[in-house]
Amino acid sequence: MLSSALDRFHDALPETLPGSLLIKQGQPSQDAWHLSRDEEGLPAYRPAIVPLTLWQRHGDQEGLAPWLSSDTVLEPTLVDQLLRAPLIAIDFPAFTDGRGYTLARLLRERHGYEGEVRAIGDVLIDQLYYMTRCGFDALALRDDQPLEDALRWLKPFSVSYQPGVDVREALFERRLRETS
Amino acid sequence: MYRYDTYDQTLVDERVAQFRDQMERYLAGRLSDAEFLPLRLQNGLYIQRHAPMLRIAIPYGMLSSRQLRALAGITRRYDRGYGHFTTRQNLQLNWPRLEDVPDILAELAQVQMHAIQTSGNCIRNTTTDQFAGIAGDEVEDPRPWCELIRQWSTLHPEFAYLPRKFKIAVTGADHDRAAIQVHDIGVRLWHDDAGGLRAQVLAGGGMGRTPMLGDVVCEDLPWQHLLTYLEACVRVYNQFGRRDNKFKARIKILVKALGIEEYRRRVEEEWAHLKDGPQTLTEAAVESARSHFPEPPRRDVSEAAIATYQQLRHDDRAFARFVTNNVTDHIVPGYKAVTLSLKRREHAPGDVTADQMEAVADLADVFGFGELRVTHQQNLVLSDVPVDEIEALWHKLQELGMANPTVGTLNDIICCPGGDYCALANAVSIPIAQAIQERFDDLDYLYDLGPLDLNISGCMNACGHHHVGNIGILGVDKKGEEYYQISLGGNSHDNASLGKILGPSFYREDVPGVIDKVLKVYVEQRHEDEHFIDTYRRIGIKPFKEHVYA
C-alpha cells in the first residue's frame, strides 16, 4: 500500500518542484508554496513562504506566508498578526534545536491557529512523530531524507502518555475512563 | 512496584522496533553519526573509550528480583558478566556490542525495562529517596509521584531536544535523601496545616562545570498541578535556555541569568495557560498510581523476636557494627531496611557480577518480597526485612562480600567509572577510590570519623557528585597528566552545600596522604560527636589548607 502511494506520488511529481519533499496530513504531497530565506526582498514567485519580518511588512499581499525562526517569542501583537496567516512555517536551523516544538504547540493549543503549520529546515524522519504530536501538519523533509522511511516512521507509537495536539487526553485519564 | 499494563508494554515494544530500525539505518549508512547520536543517546547508548556503553533505566531505583535476574543474564550474554550501578540509580553495561543493543533492549522489554532517556538532552530518569515508603520521617511516599513524572516525561514530544540534559529528583521526607537541591528540578512533597499535600518546586540546581544549588520556584503547589507546573518549568527552559554554548546550556545558567524572580514569573505566566488542563491530576489518577506501591504482606514480628535481635546486637560486636551502619529503621516495628554494600576493595564502587546479581535476587526473594532499591550512593537496599531474619541475611551477605559494615562512612565512596572506562574522563577515579579504601580500612577509625561522604569524579561532569561530597575529589588533566583537586564542605543532605576547593591539585599517589591530613585536622579540631561537615562549617577551610600545604 505504501509503495503504491509512493508510486502515485512520484508519477504526479512535476518537473520542477518548488519546495522539498513534503508530507501533509500524513500523505506525500506537493504544493505551490516556495520557500524564500532571503531577508532582503520578496521573491518574484507566488505563493511564497518568506521571513517573518518581510511578511509583517507585506502581509496584506496575496500568496505570502511567514516562517518563524526558532527563537521567535510569541508576543500578543505578533500572535494577532499570525492568526491571519494562510500558513505558518517554523524553521529548524538544526534538528537538535527543540524550540520549534514549543512554538507549534503554542500556536495550536494556546492561540487556536487552525491553518497549516509547516516544519522546515533540518527536518529528519526521526523527528516527524514528535512534530506531528506538537501540531505540525505539514513536514517539509530535508532534501536527502528518504521519503519511504519517513512515511514508514511517521507514527512509530500507537500510544502516548501525555496529551498532545493529536490526542488531548493524558493516558492516566484514558485508563481511568476505560476501567470505570 | 509499578507493573506495566498493555499500554506501557506496547510503548516499550514499539520503542525497541523503532530503535532497531534506526540502528539498521545507521549501520547501512543512511543515518550519519551526528544524526544517530541523539537517537542512540535517548536509548542509553554511548560510544565510549573501549566499547559502547549502555545505560539501563531503573525508574526511581526500584528493581524486582526477576528484573535483576534478567540483567544478570544480559550481562553474561552481551557483556563481560558484570554491571555498574550509577549515582542516578541506573545500571550501566560497559562492554556491549553496538549491533547487539536492539536485542538487549528487546530482552529488557520482556521484564518491563528499557533504556529510554537515560542519556541525551531530554528529561532523564527521575530519582528519589531509597527509603521511600518505609522511612519514619516520610510525609508522602514519593514513588507514585515519580511514576506519574516518569510517564509524563517519557517520549514527551516537546522536550526531546532540550538545550541540555534535565534531571528531576523527588523527596517526600523531612530529611532529603534524594539530593533535590542539586537537580535541575527538585520536588519536595509536604503537608500543609490542613493536611493538604503540596509540592515545593526547586529549579536550577546541578553539578557539572558550574555547580549550583536550586532556588525555590514554588513553595506550596497543590498536588493536582504537579505535572502542568513541571511542564511550564521545562517549557520556559526549552524556549529560553542557552543553545549557543554546551557549557552554559543547563537550566541553572538560565535561572542564574534571569534571576529566580524572572524565571518564576515566566513559569507562572506559562502555567496560567496550562493550569487545569488535561494533565491536571485527579484523586483517582493518584490513587491509581499509589495502588502500584502497596504495603508488602508483612507478618507480625513478636516482641520476643525483637528482644532476641537486640540481645544479639549487644553480644556480637561484628553484628552490632553491621546493624549500626547498614541497617536502617523502618516505619513498621519489627522490620528494618538493610543496605547491601557495593563498596568492596576487589570491585569498583557500584560494580556487581552476574553471579552476584543472581545471588542478590535470591536474597530479595527470601528476605525482601522480591524487591530491591538502588541507592544514589551506588548500593542496594532490601527494604522490608523482619529483625529475626537479619542475622541470617547478614551471614549470606558476608558470603557475598556485601556485608562491609561501612555504609555512610569514609569507605562508602561514591565514584564514577572514570578514565578506566569513560571517554569524557580526564583521569581515573576507581583506583583512587581503591587506594583510599585500602589506606582507611580500620573499622574503629572509620567509626570514630563518623558519617562522612567522600565522592570522586573523573571529570567536571561530576557523575561522582564530588561537589557535594564532604570531601570531594575531582580528576583534572594538566598537559596530559592526571591530577586531583580536593574540595571540602560539600553536602547533599539537608542544608545542601557545594564544596570549596582546598588549593592546588595533587599527584595521584599523594591523594590518600592528603585525605589523611584532612582527617587529622578534623579529629583534632572537632567538638565531641561533631560530624565532619559540622566541624568544617564551624572552622572553615583555612586550618585544613594550612595543614595540608604546610
TrEMBL record, chain A:
Name-wise, this protein is Uncharacterized conserved protein, DUF934 family
* Species this protein is from: Modicisalibacter ilicicola DSM 19980
From TrEMBL, chain B:
Q: Per the UniProt entry, what species is this protein from, by scientific name?
A: Modicisalibacter ilicicola DSM 19980
Q: Is Zinc among the key words of this record? A: no
Might you name a Gene Ontology BP term for this protein? sulfate assimilation
Cellular component terms per the entry's GO annotation:
sulfite reductase complex (NADPH)
Under the heading SUPFAM superfamilies, the entry gives: Nitrite and sulphite reductase 4Fe-4S domain-like, Nitrite/Sulfite reductase N-terminal domain-like
Annotated Nitrite/sulphite reductase 4Fe-4S domain residues: 119-273, 412-548
The Nitrite/Sulfite reductase ferredoxin-like domain sits at 53-110, 349-399
Q: Which UniProt keywords apply?
A: 4Fe-4S, Iron, Iron-sulfur, Metal-binding, Oxidoreductase
- Cofactors demanded by this protein: siroheme; [4Fe-4S] cluster
What protein name is recorded for this chain?
A: Sulfite reductase (NADPH) hemoprotein beta-component
Question: In Gene Ontology terms, what is one molecular function of this protein?
Answer: heme binding
Q: Which domain of life is it from?
A: Bacteria
